[in-house]
Amino acid sequence: MDMASHPTPPAAPFGLTGHGQRDRWLALALDAAEANAFYAPDMLGAAIDHLAGDGDVHLIEARDGDMAIGLLPVVRKPRHGRLPIGCVANWMHDHCFFGAPIIRQGHEVAAWRNFLAQLDAAPWARGFLHLQGLDAAGANAAALEALCVEQRRGRLEIHRYDRAMLRSDLTADAYWETQVRSKKRKELRRLQKRLAEMGAVETRLLSEPDELARWCGDFLALEASGWKGQEGTALECKPADAAFFHAACTAAFDAGRLHMLRIDLDDRAIAMLVNFRHGEGAFSFKIAFDETLGRFSPGVLIEIANLNAVQADPAIGWMDSCAAPDHPMIDSLWAERRTIVQYRIALHGAGVARMQRSAAFALANGVEAIARKMKGQA
Known about the structure:
This protein has helices spanning 19-30, 41-51, 108-121, 139-151, 172-179, 182-196, 212-224, 227-231, 239-254, 298-311, 330-333, 351-377; strands at 12-13, 57-64, 67-77, 87-90, 102-103, 128-135, 155-166, 201-205, 258-265, 268-278, 281-289, 318-320, 336-346. By secondary structure, the chain is of the alpha+beta class. Strands 1, 2, 3, 4, 5, 6, 7, 8, 9, 10, 11, 12 and 13 form a 13-stranded mixed sheet that branches. Residues 182-303 form the BioF2-like acetyltransferase domain.
């Protein structure tokens, strides 16, 4: 719907408040054109409650009448990378690994027209829109490209990389036989046998609500026991991160979207994996394992358990690893790839705001072009 004929309320700073608002966004998430567990209301709400600074996050809601057709969390940034240029960016906190806004199926271009119109009109939206963590082949990327062509709005892809994903109709056994070298399969079977000689090994998928709190505590302790704890990057190292983890897991479990596995040795967790589901997809969030048992490759063993669990679940069509590019472990286990991109999108407006935004977009593009040229000549 055209913004001029049906204005949308201004972007809401901070908080998922009001039952009506929550209901609209829950309905939107159930009809999303592109799955993103990190922006689904339960996980986004946990992040806002525990990870957002006061007033830092603006929730831009695109609506068609009383129906929500899009939800985009954004933050203002004083710098764009190394450039002292202010901009607006989709909000990706330290524990968010995919940045696609939630948009309703069949309303993809309309939602983006609405988002950009609100940003164009917002006096706080400086510079341009920096979008991170999108799927190059996803619904958001396609709608953005179409709309930017229609509006003659500047759009530049500034980075891309591939990361592992699991998307296959094969059974877990068939996938394992097809994608993993026989030598590696043999070695892992040997490690599983040696581990079993040390005690009772049990692999479980969380199903009981009364076990959730203990599993969350076990995961935090296991992660903190390794190198992440030593470097201060484990979730338990920061109270806000730990609170977010508990809240996100609880909300996702209540919504039927938490997928959490563990391997126990004599009733003690030695490897755990947390995934979040949305729609027909899932996102691998965090892994933790006992590094003192590294000779048994517990991280790989939990991924084997995950492969079996995912491929046996007809409700999960695919899983995004959310891993860094060229990850040595998961890249060797999962054959499929997802291309993740970043875009710089020009913002319009009127008067001085339009001139400032146009200059910021041109300056950022020009500096990067010069840097690429110099790098190519080096």
